Amino acid sequence: MKGFRARKLDPIYLFPIEELPVAVNYLKNLLPFLTEGLCNKCNKLLLNRVDLLDQELSYQDPQPLQVPDVHCCESTSSPANEDIDKYAYIPDECCGKKDNSDTHSIGSWNNGEKGECGSDTHSIGSWKNGEKGDCDSDTQSIGSWKDGENGRLEPVLCKSELEGDCDSDTQSIGSWKDGENGRMEPVMYKSELEVSTTSEAPNVRMSWADMAQENGRLEPVVYKNELEVATTSEAPNVRMSWADIARQNGKLEPVVYKSELEVSTTSEAPNVRMSWADMAQEEEDELQEYENSQQQECDPGGVGSEEKKKPELSRETREFIRFMNVQRKKDFVCLERIKGKTVNVLEGLELHAGVFSAAEQKRIVDFVFELQEKGSRGELKERTYTAPQKWMRGKGRVTIQFGCCYNYAPDRKGNPPGILRNEHVDPIPNLLKVMIRRLVKWHVLPASCVSDSCIVNIYDEGDCIPPHIDNHDFIRPFCTVSFLSECDIVFGSNLKIVGPGEFSGSAAIPLPVGSVLVLQGNGADVAKHCVPAVPCKRISITFRKMDEGKCPLGFVPEPDLLGIQPLPYESDESNVLNIQVKSLRDGGNSNLSEKREGILGRAPSDDLGSHSEPRQTTQGSHSDNGGSHVEPWQRARGTLSDNGSTHSEPRLTTRGAHSEPRLAAQTARGTSQSEAQQTAEGGSHSEPQEPSQETHSEPRPTSIGTPQSEPRQTPRRTPWSQQTNRPRESHSEPQVTSQETHSEPGPASIGTPQSEPRQTPRRTPWSQQTYRSREAYSEPQETSQETHSEPRPATIGTPRQTPRRTPWSQQTYKPGEAHSEPQQTSQETHSEPRPASIGTPQSEPRQTPRRTPWSQQTFRPRARRSVDR
Ligand SMILES: O=C(O)CCC(=O)C(=O)O
Ligand SMILES: [Fe+2]
Asked: Are strands 143-147 and 125-126 parallel, antiparallel or unpaired?
C-alpha cells in the first residue's frame, strides 16, 4: 500500500515497532506543542503521518495518501497540488518560498513562519486563514486549523464546533484554538479522540516516563499494561507513570508499585499517580523556577547559575500534561432539611488533586516551617504570626497571615469579625504567590478571584479549627490547600462543639495531602466547616481574595498577581477525583461501606422510612450562633420560613465508645458565641470562633427550586478558552431546593450527583460518570420533621475512640531529620494508621494498602525548628 512505502525512509521506523504505539500516542497528544511555529503545510504533514501510523498500528487500512512531490505553491497546476488542495488550504504566506522537500519524514520540515514550508507528502489537516473564512474538507486529518488573528496557527475542530465555515473532517482527533496570547491551544474532547483511536479513553497520556523529560536523563519506560489501558480502558488516561520518571541524579530509586500497575489496568478510576519519592524530581516546575530565580538573584553568574540541561519537553508541555492530570470532584452532596427545604449543603464545593506535586508540596512545607521559625523569633510582623496559648487540647493552631489580618470573631479591642483594616501584616511571600498563580492557571480558582491574602494554619496533633463560615470580607470562591497529613473537614449547617476539638456535623470530607478544597455556594455560605482535632501534624494554607471595599487601608495589590489567566485548555472533567463524603449522621461513624451496602439492598421507600436519623436543622438557629438568627439573604429569597427559632435542639451524641462525657468538655471549651469570642481575645485569635452569620457582608441569593442536577446534565462544559466566565460562577447561588420540586425525597446522596441515587440500578460506565456510583450511596437523610423530631448530629474529632498509633507529631518530629513514618490516621475511616501520602494520588491510599514508608522517602524539612509554643 501506498501508505507504507515510506517506511524505510521514515525516521520514525527507527523506533522498535513495539514502541510505536506509545510514540504515536505521544505525538498525537503533543502535536500542538511539537508543531508550534511550523507552517500549516508542515503541520499537516506531520499530523497526517501520525494519523497514518496510528492507522497502521490499529491494523486499519490506511487511507490513500496524497503524495505530492512539491510543496506549497511551487506549482499550483501540478497534480500533486491538486491533491493537496483537496485537503488543505495553503496559506498565502506559505507560498512563493523555497520549499524544503522531505517527502516522507515526520522529522523534517521547515519553519513556516516566514513563509517557508517543508514539503508535504500527505495532507495532514485542513486549514483556514483567519481572514478568509473558509475551511477545506479533510478526510484524513487529525485536526484542522485556522489562523488566529495574530497569524498563528489555530486548529479548529470543524465537525462540531465551527459554524458552517468549515467542511467536514472525519478523522479529527483534536481541535485547537488560539489562546488570547496567540499560543496554540489544544482542546481535546473525548468524542474527538474516539474518532481517531480505538480506545474509548481520551489519551492525553504520557506513559512515557521519559516524557517527563527531566534533562534527557531518563529512559523511556513503557509498560505493557499501560498500553493495554490505552486501548481498553474506559477511564480517561491522562496518565503519566511518574514512578518511573524521576530517577534522576541517582538520588532516587524508581519506585513502581505493583498495586499501581495493577490499578492501572483494572481500575476504572483515572490514575494520576505520582509517587512522592519520584515526584521529588520535578526540577523544572514553576516552584523550582522560583527557587532558581531566587538563587540567581543571590548568585548572578555564579556557580548556582550553571546552565541546566534543557528538558526534552518544554515547560509548557509539561504544564499542560500536569494540568490535564488534575483530578477534580465537584459533585459533593449532603442534603439537609433546612426550614422545610432540602438543601445540598455541600453544593459549590470542589476538591482538586494533583495541583501541587510532591516536590512542590515539600518545598512549600519547608517554606512554611521557615516562616514559622521566623515568626517565633519575632521576625514577622506582629499580626502576621500567631501562636496559640496551648492551655487545653484542641485549642488553636499556629497561624501566619499574609495580605491582611482578620478576626474570625470579635476581639477584645472590639474589632468585629472580618478584615482589620487598620492592622497590617506581611505581604504574601513569593512562593505563595506562585501557588496562587498555579491555582488560577490550572482552573482551580477563577481569574476573577485571584487571592490577595492567605492564612497558613499549622496544626499540631490535637489542634483544630472550630466551626465557622469564612467571613464575607472575602469573596467566593476561596480555597484551602492541605499538606503533610490527611484529615477530615466537617460540614453542616448546624455544627456543634461537643468537646475539645470535637464537633458534630453532617458530613466529613477527607482532605488528601496536596489537595485543594474550593469553597463557594452553599458549601461556603450555608454550611459551616471545621477541622476537628487533627491526629497528626498538618498544615493548610487558605487563599482568599478580599472584597475590594474591605482591604486594609493603604493596601496595594501585588503587581505579579494581576492579570493571571487560566491556561487556555479545557480541563479534563472526566478526570474525577475518587473521594467519598462521609456521612456523620449515624453517630459519626463514617465508615460508609456497610451502610452503603445496606442502602443499596433496600427499596427506596424503605430507605426513607427506615431512616432513623434525619437531619432537620434550622438554618440560623444554631445555639452557638445566638439563637434564631435567619440570614438576611435567606429571608430575602424566602427560602426559609420566618420561624427561625423553631429549632429542636439536636441531641449531642458522641461517636462510638467514647467514655468521657462530652458535655463537661463542652462546658470547658465553650459553645456559645460569646464564649467563643472570649477565647479569641488577646489578639491571638488563631482560632475561628464560630463567627456569627450577621458578619456576612453580602446577602446570599438563594435559588429556590434550582434543579440540583442541572449543572451535571451538561456533558461537556464550554471550552475554557471560550468562556468569559468560569462555570463555577453558576455555583455561587446556594442551591436550596424546595421540597415541592422533589415529591419523592430520597436518601441524601452524599457524594453523588443529586439526580443519580437509586434511580440507576446498574452501573454506568465510568467514562459516563462523574462519580463512582457504588460508593456514592449513603444513608438516607431526607425525612420529614414530623417523623423525626430528634435529629442527632454525629460527632467527629474524637481520636480516643479510634485506636491508633502514636500520632506522627508525637513521634518526635524533628525538622531537618528524616521523618519516621507518619501515622496518617483519619479519625473515622482509618482505624489503622497510614503513612502520609504526600504526593500520592488522593484516591490511592484507600486502594493501596501500603506504600513506601515515609521514612524511606525523601521528605526532609530543611531546618531544625524549635518553636516555642
Ligand atoms: O485547615 C483547613 O483545612 C481549613 C482552614 C479554614 O477553614 C480556614 O482557614 O478558614
Ligand atoms: Fe474556613
From this structure: parallel
852 burial (CB, 10 Å; 0-12 / 13-18 / 19+) is middle
169 forms bridges with which residues in the sheet? Answer: 138
ipTM greater than cut 0.90: yes
- Partners of residue 540 on adjacent β-strands: 457, 482
Q: What is the pTM of this model?
A: 0.46
Give the N- to C-terminal CA distance of the chain in Å, as an integer. Answer: 77
Residues 6+ apart with CB under 8 A from 102: 108, 109, 118, 119, 121
Closest residue CA from atom 8 of ligand 1: 542
Q: Are 97 and 117 in contact (CB under 8 A)?
A: yes
Residue-wise pLDDT tens digits, 604-639: 222 222 222 333 333 333 333 333 332 222 222 222
Which ligand is in closest contact with the Cα of 687? 1
Range with lowest mean pLDDT among 32-36, 157-161, 542-546: 157-161
Task: Phi first, then psi: give them for residue 97, nearest 5 degrees.
Answer: -105, 165
Q: What angle do CA 186, 190, 196 make, to 5 degrees?
A: 85
Atom of ligand 1 nearest to the CA of 408: 10
Q: Which helix (H) or strand (E) holds 503?
A: strand 502-505
Report d(CA 484, CA 457) in Å as an integer. Answer: 12
Strand segments, DSSP code E, in 420-571 are 453-459, 465-468, 478-483, 487-492, 496-499, 502-505, 507-511, 516-519, 528-531, 538-544
Geometric angle at alpha carbon 169, from 66 and 67, rounded to 5°: 5
Cβ of 469 below 6 Å from ligand 1: no
- Distance, C-alpha 769 to centroid of its chain: 17
- Stretch (H or E) spanning 6: none
| AA identity, residue 620 | G
CB contact at 8 A, 498 and 667? no
